[in-house]
Write a structure and sequence with these properties.
Length: 422
């Protein structure tokens, strides 16, 4: 009982000292010493603006306005350090939780981040059990990425345990954990849209891969979108430039929901399947989303092409007329090869089948949203069979079908009107 009273007395005394000492002795006098110790641990220059103590919810040392690295590649508004107090009484200085708030980093920071972590873990007398990062953003050439939050779990020997990255108001998580001599990467999202392609919304998306800092084999891509599924694989690697190569299969997609997100007026309905290949490259990772190239072989069943009325166009159009707009064409099957690059869309080997109606040819949609190309349309009939080339021009929202080329509307993509038809 006496020992218990002594122990409780020591704890109370320690708490009193922790509360009173900062009031009697300004902690900012220790700033140079803290900077030297932390700089030595990280092997990077560190500057601290102000040092203070926070008492609630648990006593913690607080560092404000911290700059890390040559050229200040990382800036932290506040670092809170919560010790594991019993460990400090027995010689080992274990930090239970270290929290970084409002962090801004440059891409160069990630080149030295692993070395900093390894160096900091090299001293067995100091160990951080958990590192929390709130509101971190990365300054990239095309604009900042973030803010997002991160949680890093560190093993007993200072080794990297697991990294979990989340973002406020974004239903997605990214994880990294050791796997043999590499790392396992995982991405999971619910109700999530691709950056720069908000119309492509996934009900769920899972991406798993294994690799290192310069190469990742993406061995599992699984997604649910617009009533159908996506499966695929890919590879991300660096050979002087970052490159992403991925291929996948879309099955049983509601084509109207997907294409209407790109154009409410001109779109396709029906059940769609497609074999897709994605290629992207850039000097940095953020450039991968700037100019991707998409290639696909698409098949749509039992649907309609909205804003294209092929039957009316060949029945009631005249060679000298101004063309027709609007309407729709129903089909049993629609096939096309798609090549999308630099904001331009090329539809080759187009083949539409709808009972007595056939249409074959090639179209292109330019960067400015203008149509070009032609389709050979045939309508079988025992009384009055029709067959004529329909030239397509006009804008994405208002395509124009005519029996002659519209030379008044300049094309901003390569001419596809001379493509061979199926």
């Amino acid at each position: 009982m006496k020992i218990l009273k002594v122990a409780l007395g020591l704890v109370v005394l320690l708490l009193v000292i922790l509360m009173v000492f900062p009031l009697l002795y300004p902690l900012n006098l220790y700033t140079p010493q803290i900077e030297r110790v932390v700089s030595a641990k990280l092997q990077q220059p560190v500057k601290v603006g102000e040092v203070s103590v926070r008492y609630l919810p648990m006593p913690a040392l607080v560092l404000n306005d911290v700059h890390i690295g040559v050229g200040q590649v990382a800036e932290v508004k506040q670092i809170s350090i919560q010790p594991n107090y019993p460990s400090w009484l027995f010689g080992r200085r274990v930090i239970k939780r270290m929290t970084l708030e409002d962090v801004r980093v440059a891409p160069a920071f990630f080149l030295s981040a692993r070395d900093m972590l390894t160096s900091a873990a090299g001293d067995p007398n100091y160990r951080v059990q958990k590192l929390l990062i709130s509101r971190v953003s990365v300054a990239l050439p095309h604009g900042p990425v973030g803010p997002f939050n991160a949680e890093l779990v560190i093993g007993e020997k200072g080794e990297f345990g697991k990294l979990l990255v989340t973002a406020d108001a974004t239903p997605a998580t990214f994880t990294v954990e050791p796997y043999e001599d590499k790392y396992r990467f995982g991405f999971d999202a619910q109700g999530w849209s691709l950056p720069h392609a908000e119309g492509l919304r996934f009900s769920s998306l899972t991406i798993n891969g294994i690799g290192n800092a310069s190469e990742v084999d993406i061995n599992d891509i699984r997604g649910v979108l617009y009533g159908g599924t996506l499966t695929g694989t890919g590879r991300l690697f660096f050979d002087g430039r970052w490159r992403l190569l991925a291929k996948g299969r879309l099955s049983n997609i509601q084509a109207d929901a997907l294409t209407a997100a790109l154009s409410p007026a001109t779109n396709v309905s029906g059940r769609m399947s497609a074999d897709v290949a994605l290629l992207a490259g850039g000097q940095s990772l953020d450039e991968l989303a700037q100019k991707p190239q998409l290639q696909a072989r698409v098949r749509v069943l039992d649907g309609s092409v909205n804003n294209f009325d092929f039957i009316t166009a060949i029945r009631y159009n005249s060679p000298g007329g101004s063309g027709l707009r609007g309407g729709k064409t129903r089909f049993d099957e629609l096939l096309a090869s798609l090549d999308a690059k630099d904001g331009r869309y090329r539809f080759s080997s187009v083949a539409l089948r709808s009972g007595l109606l056939n249409a074959n040819g090639g179209l292109a949609l330019g960067k400015e949203g203008n149509w070009s190309g032609n389709l050979q349309v045939s309508l079988k009939s025992a009384v009055n069979p029709l067959s004529a080339p329909l030239f397509v021009s006009g804008t994405l929202a208002s395509p124009l079908l005519s029996l002659h080329a519209q030379i008044s509307e300049p094309k901003d993509v390569g001419d596809v009107s001379s493509e061979s038809t199926d």
